[in-house]
Design a protein that fits this description.
Blueprint lengths: L1 E10 L3 H12 L4 E4 L6 H5 L2 H16 L17 H15 L5 H6 L3 E3 L3 E5 L2 E4 L2 E10 L3 E3 L27 E5 L3 H12 L3 E5 L10 H13 L3 E3 L6 E3 L4 E4 L5 E3 L1 E4 L3 E3 L24 E2 L2 E6 L10 H17 L12 E3 L4 E6 L2 H8 L3 E7 L4 H5 L5 E7 L2 E9 L2 H4 L1 H9 L4 H4 L10 H16 L2 H13 L2
Parallel strand pairs: 1-2, 1-6, 2-3, 6-17, 8-9, 8-14, 9-10
Antiparallel strand pairs: 4-5, 5-6, 7-15, 11-12, 12-13, 16-17, 18-19, 19-22, 20-21, 21-22
Helix pairs in contact: 1-8, 3-4, 3-6
């Protein structure tokens, strides 16, 4: 048994943990990184990276069927499902070196490949090592939540941790869960030649603007994906492959994907011994520290908030400022964007229309624009919409559904994070023609009535014209 003393010990080598380890080590701190499973965490191995890779394969298959409006004859794609999965594996393999143990050891991080658990408020045991650290960072992420559905344990089912290993194309994939993971995988498999049924106990994409969510769901249904909303999965049996019993009748398919949410990975940590308060996640304050043990931080999914890779990275920056420099740093959520990478994409930052109306009342102005309000949108026959929520000249929220919505949300995320006024974007000169003009037009639409419909402006312009030589 060896004893290690460190400035900072990070538990979990996912996105957030790796960011803290890299930053702290390069700033001269003695860093220990503990990981009992795969370097890179869920995002690299089971989440963001493989899902977007599979969606890319699906996009190419779908493009072969949709060229008629552009003068290109549609063709039936010949899908090699196993080769699509090879593409997924190749993308993961290409990124792996950046997250590898070798790279982080090269940065000066001591990497311990074992599960960690606290043995006191100041000590962590990992395999044959006892680590004493000035600061601990819990960055253990989350895993798929498997709901207590009657009979589920008696059938073979997939989660996002196993679906990417599947080599034979499902004939009929049933997806339990109508959130981002479930719908992304539903569309990817539908475009790769599978019949797909989605079962959602509440509203699909229920955390997003309902108007824009309805637009996206309509597009998915138009591609042949059956989406049953407000329909609970009551029981699962192995009849005919796998059958999900619902109040609206049974659904029988060949494969089942469970995508109903995430469960935080804290059960191995022995947090009670560490005197770290927790429930479903670690309880932290705005500084991401445990009020019951100030040595301990939690970031990303382990902190119990928004479960996105970019949030874990954001949290890592908060911890670096606090733990390395002793600077005051607090995490916020109002400026955090998120994207569902279906086609069309669905992006959100700040308040939705409903949230903004509740918060700001009559002071709120909602600007709505369509993609075909831009020339680039018309050129590519883009369908979609943008909602911009504005209060006193400042954006408080933006919702976008359509092509590249995840890219188009970036200026609004910047504006909301930094408290910018709409003049910042309205004064920006953008290349023509781009879809980014949609954002500038939205900013301009706020000022247009004040300029073009104001009697005062007209009187001033008239006076100036009479006085000018």
């Amino acid at each position: 048994m060896s004893t290690i003393k460190a400035d900072i010990c990070i538990i979990g080598a996912g996105s957030g943990g790796l960011s803290v380890a890299s930053g702290a080590a390069q700033m001269g701190a003695k860093v220990v990184l503990v990981e009992g499973h795969k370097m890179g965490g869920d995002c690299l191995n089971y989440g963001c990276v493989p899902s977007k890779a599979l969606l890319s394969s699906a996009h190419h298959a779908h493009a072969m069927t949709t060229g008629a409006p552009f003068g290109v004859a549609p063709a039936v794609p010949q899908v090699d499902y196993a080769r699509a999965k090879d593409h997924v594996a190749e993308v993961i393999a290409a990124i792996e070196p950046h997250d590898s143990q070798e790279r982080f050891e090269g940065l000066g991080v001591q990497v311990i490949r074992d599960w960690g658990s606290f043995i006191s408020p100041t000590e962590l045991r990992a395999g044959e090592h006892t680590i004493t650290a000035r600061r601990f960072v819990i960055a253990t992420g989350s895993r798929p939540f498997v709901p207590p559905i009657d009979g589920l344990e008696s059938v073979d089912y997939h989660t996002n941790e196993t679906i990417f290993d599947l080599r034979e194309r499902p004939e009929h994939l049933i997806v339990i869960g109508g959130g981002p993971i479930g719908l992304e995988m539903a569309q990817a498999h539908a475009r790769l030649g599978c019949k797909v049924t989605v079962i959602e106990a509440q509203k699909a994409l229920g955390k997003d603007d309902p108007d824009l969510a309805a637009f996206v769901l309509g597009k998915l249904r138009a591609e042949g994906i059956e989406i049953r909303e407000e329909t609970a999965a009551e029981k699962v049996t192995a009849e005919g492959g796998v059958t999900v019993h619902t109040p609206s009748g049974p659904v029988t398919g060949s494969h089942l994907l469970v995508a109903v949410g995430r469960q935080v990975n804290i059960d191995r940590l022995n947090l009670n011994v560490a005197k770290v308060d927790h429930d479903r996640a670690v309880k932290v304050d705005a500084t991401l520290r445990s009020p019951s043990n100030r040595r301990v931080y939690a970031i990303g999914d382990a902190a119990g908030g928004l479960q996105f890779t970019h949030v874990a990275g954001y949290h890592a920056g908060i911890v670096i400022r606090s733990a390395m420099f002793g600077l005051p740093a607090k995490a916020r959520t109002a400026h955090i964007p998120w994207v569902t990478y279906t086609d069309p994409e669905l992006a959100q930052v700040g308040q939705t229309e409903a949230q903004a109306r509740e918060a700001h009342g009559a002071a709120l102005q909602v600007i709505r624009l369509s993609y075909d309000d831009t020339d680039r949108g018309r050129a590519i026959r883009a369908e979609g919409m943008l909602k911009l929520m504005v209060v006193k000249g400042r954006p408080v929220g933006a919702s976008i559904a359509g092509p590249q919505a995840g890219e188009l949300i970036a200026p609004w995320a910047t504006a909301i994070a930094n408290g910018h006024k709409l003049t910042t974007l309205a004064n920006t000169v953008l290349p023509y023609p781009t879809l980014q003009e949609l954002n500038k037009r939205a900013a301009g639409a706020y000022f247009s009535p004040k300029l073009f419909e104001s009697p005062l402006v007209k009187r001033v312009v008239g006076l100036v014209q009479r006085l000018l030589p």
